[in-house]
Amino acid sequence: MRIVLVGPPGAGKGTQAAFLAKNLSIPHISTGDLFRANISQGTDLGKQAKAFMDAGNLVPDEVTIGMAKDRMAQADAEGGFLLDGFPRNVSQAVALDASLKAEGQQLDGVLDLEVPEDEVVKRIAGRRTCRNDSSHVFHVTYSPPKEDGVCDVCGGELYQRGDDTEETVRRRLEVYHSETEPIIDHYKAQGLVVTISALGKVDEVTKRAMEALKKSSDEG
Q1: Inter-residue contact 106 to 2 (CB < 8 Å)
Q2: 88 is in an annotated binding site
Q3: Mind spelling out the 3-state secondary structure of the chain?
């Protein structure tokens, strides 16, 4: 299956992408991983991306699209893939459509993870990260530390990252609504969008997603 995963920040796309890719036996391709791999390997596209990022600028669509096309052409993606964070706007979606068409392929589905805006803010603004190890993450509501402000693992100080504040989250949501959300209408016109609620436990959302994709595939 060739799937695009869409949803606002805080919808759990990264978590769901990993589970879905494993269940479907297809590679999980995320924009962040594409950038890191190309930059660390010193590819031409990686050098271009790094130059823009070092200058504090957004990486142009053509660079991101080039990285995605290279990754989708690799052997492990021959039987399908799950795209997470790409396409991020309509022009990237159009380029993806054209690239797949040129290969005689097409998307099988676009999974839209739906989460109320207030829940997104609650999920992200409630995160607390350990200063000693950023992989130690807690949540004031969903997974609070035993002692307020103290990491259960190493005893380090827990703090709220700058990009986890409510103000920053609401700005990120505005960008999502203006830039990324329009791709849902783009794909709805092709009959590809399946929308599910991303509320509930991780395994419940994964089950919901798998059932929705299977139903969509059967109907298609």
Answers
A1: yes
A2: yes
A3: CEEEEECCCCCCHHHHHHHHHHHHCCCEEEHHHHHHHHHHHCCHHHHHHHHHHHCCCCCCHHHHHHHHHHHHCCHHHCCCEEEECCCCCHHHHHHHHHHHHHCCCCCCEEEEEECCHHHHHHHHHCEEEECCCCCCEEECCCECCCECCECCCCCCEEECCHHHCHHHHHHHHHHHHHHHCHHHHHHHCCCCEEEEECCCCHHHHHHHHHHHHHHHHHHC
Catalytic amino acids? 13, 88, 127, 161, 172
Whether 92 has a binding-site annotation, put simply, is: yes
Domain annotation covers residue 166 = yes
Q: What is the CATH classification number for the domain harbouring 13? A: 3.40.50.300
Rounded Cα–Cα distance for residues 161 and 137 (Å): 11
Annotated binding-site residue? 131 = no
pTM, full prediction: 0.90
pLDDT tens digits for range 3-32: 999 999 999 999 999 999 999 999 999 999
Task: For residue 141, give its domain range.
Answer: 2-27+74-219
Task: Report if residue 33 sits inside a domain.
Answer: no
